[in-house]
Write a structure and sequence with these properties.
single chain; 332 residues; alpha/beta; Rossmann fold; seven-stranded mixed sheet; 7 strands
Length: 332
């Protein structure tokens, strides 16, 4: 019996690929240095800190933006409230005025609203010299029959100057008449109508020159067909012989306003039946007063003047066929 020899074949191994467990080299290769852990942890912390810092900055930016928006709205609200306060104050309480300015505004408001009249509130249009001429003429004839077209502060004084005589005022403003009657009882005042406006002056003058009813001998005046004749005056105006006639109304201060064409013409007619009547016309610097005074009161009858006041003296001439002895005045 042959015995089989047993041969133990060595295991195939590679010393280069097999490392002993206790090899120090193995420890060197597998072991991670502490510095690596420290650096890694430090970088991780830095990354975390950077993220947190970025979030903080972002959060700070958002907070700042919100604060700016809130601040903007607060300032806008304050500005709006101040504006509303200023508007409310300006509407409810006007700026404080001085006492003199307040009184002036009160007078202007009253005059524009009610057109009230009193001598102290009217504009004084007669100068001192004009008024002196007027009073001197009346003083020479008192007591007399005094007729006045229009009312002014000074002309109201003429009634007391003509003590014992007859003074009559003719006024076209009803409110003015009403106010005067409350304070000046006993004065004879009548409201009259002046239909012709200042802008009609030229056409009315042409009418008077060509219409026979406008001639000086055409009587009675109450029934005259002349467009310049005042035919609705109180009866005593036509019946009395007038010593002094003052033409200072109506206003005639605007083209549409009633003017004095008819007053001057009517005065010239009644003066020719008077007692050497003194006629005074105010505002002769204006075209209407100048034209119609030359046409119906005549240059040869002008005896004196002061400022804008002309003084004519008309002698009795009821049979005359013309107002003036010279040629017709040429209107320029």
């Amino acid at each position: 019996m042959s015995s089989k020899a047993t041969v133990d074949h060595p295991l195939i191994s590679s010393p280069t690929h097999s490392l002993p467990q206790d090899s120090s080299e193995s420890q060197v290769l597998l072991e991670i240095p502490d510095s690596y852990h420290k650096d890694h942890n430090h970088s991780h912390k830095d990354s975390k800190n950077e993220k947190e810092s970025g979030r903080g900055k972002k959060r700070m930016k958002i907070t700042t933006k919100k604060l700016l928006i809130i601040l903007f709205f607060i300032l806008s609200t304050i500005s709006l409230l101040r504006l509303l306060r200023i508007t409310t104050t300006g509407t409810s309480q006007p700026p404080t005025l001085s006492q003199s300015q307040q009184e002036k505004n009160t007078r202007l408001h009253a005059s524009n609203t009610h057109r009230t009249y009193s001598p102290s509130k009217l504009d004084v249009d007669l100068t001192v010299k004009e008024f002196q001429l007027l009073t001197s003429i009346i003083s020479q004839r008192v007591p007399c029959n005094l007729l006045i077209f229009g009312i002014r502060p000074q002309t109201l004084q003429l009634s007391s100057l003509n003590s014992g005589g007859t003074t009559i005022f003719l006024e076209d403003d009803p409110e003015k008449l009403l106010a005067i009657r409350r304070t000046k009882e006993g004065m004879q005042m009548y409201k009259i109508e002046h239909q012709a406006a200042a802008k009609e002056a030229y056409n009315l003058l042409r009418h008077a020159r060509t219409h026979p009813d406008c001639a000086p001998e055409a009587q009675p005046l109450q029934s005259s067909k002349c467009r310049l004749a005042l035919t609705q005056l109180p009866k005593e105006i036509y019946e009395l012989k007038w010593d002094v006639v003052v033409v200072d109304g109506p206003s005639g201060d605007k083209p549409e306003a009633p003017a004095r064409m008819a007053a001057i013409y009517t005065t010239s007619m009644i003066a020719r039946f008077g007692n050497n009547t003194d006629v005074l016309v105010h505002d002769v610097d204006r075209t209407v007063e100048k034209w119609f005074s030359w046409e119906f009161l005549c240059h040869e009858n002008l005896i004196s003047s002061k400022g804008k006041l002309w003084h004519f003296r008309i002698v009795e001439s009821s049979t005359s066929t013309s107002f003036c002895s010279n040629a017709t005045v040429r209107i320029m």
